[in-house]
Amino acid sequence: MALALTLSLSSKSSHPKIGEKIIQYGTAGFRTLADDLDFVMYRMGLLAVLRSKSTKAVIGIMITASHNPEQDNGVKLVDPHGEMLNQKWEELATNLVNVGDENLESVLLDIIRSENIEISEQGEVFVGRDTRPSGVPLLNATLDGIQDLQGESRDFGIVTTPMLHYFVDETNKGREIWVSSYFAKLTKAFKNFCKDISISGDSYHPKIVFDGANGVGSIKMEMLANFLGEEFLEVELHNAGKGALNFECGADFVKVQQKLPRGLEELKPGDKGVSVDGDADRVVYFYVDDNNVFHLLDGDRIASLVAGYINELLQECKLKLDLGVVQTAYANGASTKYITESLKIPVDCVSTGVKYLHHKALERDIGVYFEANGHGTVVFKTAAVELIQKVANDQSLSSSERKAAAKLDSLLEISNPTVGDALSDILLVESVLRSKNWSLKDWEAAYTDLPNRLLKVTVKDKNAVTTVDAGRKCTAPEGLQDEIDKLAQSYPSGRSFVRASGTEDAVRIYAESDTQENANELAAKVAIKVYEMAAGVGEAPVIPAM
Ligand code: 16G
Ligand code: ZN
Question: What separation in Å is there between the alpha carbon of 63 and the centre of ligand 2?
Fold first, then answer.
């Protein structure tokens, strides 16, 4: 008879559970005040070893709270192909984090049994963190967890989230990696892409004014810029670590506030502004025009730019591959119309959260996915890349066909196939702009965004608001969707939806209409309905004066 398995967790007593509040592995893992996370990290260290044993592959743990304020932190697990943690394991994670200390061993044993884990199997976990000071003690808690189940760990120190995803994926593909191999890959592909493109005229400038959100993005951007050299891309660094992380800067601030970040107030007309978030998996572009008016080029713009260009290259190299774009309900209606009607590329709409976009995009030969907030990338099937490379090397084809295929090959090599990656996305955007000899104004001319407004309402229980149809239809509280429909119909090009946030205790409201005033008013009216029908707390929303 097999001996009953027992676990001895020698560091458990150093990481006692605190608080009674149930916390959930949400769209972006666990995220809350750093002070409340020690035991969560320890337990995620334990879980990652089990996941590694179960998949017989390296698993990643990223310690970050992305665009949240500096005092927050969080943790996300990275699965073998560099993708987000499997959904069933998200539930196991939630369960493991919420049990009392006295039940920790038995819950771990349950997982071992139910997942048929061979405990003697090797377990290996890669760990990375953003620049938050709380990252160091939280890393130690994580390492204790890994060690308590005899897992091996490799600490990558301060890295961007997408770098860690990339390292996990590469290692599991049997490739050797080191920190600079990431930069080497990106820069080699970008330089290859730029090979035959000469810059002339006044439209494209190989220079960006970079807002690093005072986080890891600025450290890694500086390294990338050194690898590239100024002739390929000059980077003027701002918010490079002296101020508070994400405070009035970074991609989330710029997208939500639709204004220049702190430190870039003096941006000159014609300069290309670029903001990333605290863990550098999101990016937005912006500029000010001659009248000092701010213009934002968000994730929807990047999706249409990149997908449109890939489509052109496919036509030039006469390859019939299945290309598609994936968006969420937050995508500006004008972008969806432009991509489907002008570019004639199919668009799928999925629920908010990278994992949904990523998986949908993988259904295509080449899938371009972006959330409006600037998180996205290009994913592709190996067979598609092989076909493209075959065309690039086929001497019987015309040189224009071969060149287009070679460009497409480099472009796909620039993209991070595991997750949205601000640095790789910047190089993607710069590639297309350089190739088309476009300024941001040229890029923006493709379509005109419908004015929109995002609001949030705090309610007693956000789970009382449920939705279907990729977050576009509200099923509870009863009658709320009818009210939203009525309101939206009363505005020209009106569209509005509400959903419970996955990262905050709030309900988000999105509204679009023909003018900014109308979008603001529609959003406020819907917010009032949410407040009234879903037990709002705090001050009621008000309709802005016109
Ligand atoms: C997380 C998601 C992001 C999503 C956002 C929505 C990942 C890696 N990140 O940051 O994709 O847009 O949550 O936040 O999946 P919300 O649920 O609070 O609106
Ligand atoms: Zn982020």
Answer: 11
Structure tokens at 447: 């379509």
Decide if pLDDT at 1 tops 60: no
In the chain, pLDDT over 70 holds for what percent of residues?
99
Centroid of ligand 1 to alpha carbon of 545 (angstroms) = 31
- Cα of 230 vs centre of ligand 1, distance in Å, is 34
DSSP SS3 for 248: coil
Using the 8-state DSSP alphabet, how is residue 5 labeled? P
Distance 501 CA to ligand 1 centre (A): 8
Q: Please choose from 375, 419, 457, 472 the residue to mutate so as to test ligand 1's pocket, defined by most ligand atoms within 8 A of CB.
A: 375
Instruction: Walk me through the domains of the chain, giving residue ranges and CATH numbers.
Output: 2-177 (3.40.120.10), 196-297 (3.40.120.10), 299-425 (3.40.120.10), 452-533 (3.30.310.50)
- In this structure, which residue's CA is closest to atom 9 in ligand 1? 28
Which is nearest to 218 in space by CA: 226, 210, 207? 210
Q: How confident is the model at residue 503 (pLDDT cuts 50, 70, 90)?
A: confident
Distance CA 69, CA 87 (A): 27
**Which token pair is 215?**
């986080």
66 is catalytic: yes
- For ligand 1, atom 2, the nearest C-alpha belongs to 353
| CA nearest neighbour of 386 among 368, 365, 369 | 365
Q: Report the C-alpha gap between 97 and 8 in whole angstroms.
A: 18
pLDDT at 201: 78
CA distance 229 to 169: 28
- Ligand 1 atom with the smallest distance to the CA of 371 is 12
pTM value is 0.96
What Å distances lie between residue 365 and 83, 319, 351, 412, CA to CA? 18, 11, 21, 12
- d(C-alpha 211, C-alpha 275), whole Å: 5
The pLDDT of residue 405 is: 97
The ligand 1 atom at the shortest distance from the C-alpha of residue 503 is 18
| Bridge-based pairing state of the strands 473-476 and 466-468 | antiparallel
Active-site annotation holder among 52, 66, 439, 496 = 66
Strand 347-350 to 452-457 pairing: unpaired
Cα(536)–Cα(527) distance, integer angstroms: 9
> In which band, very low, low, confident or very high, does the pLDDT at 2 lie, cut at 50, 70 and 90?
low
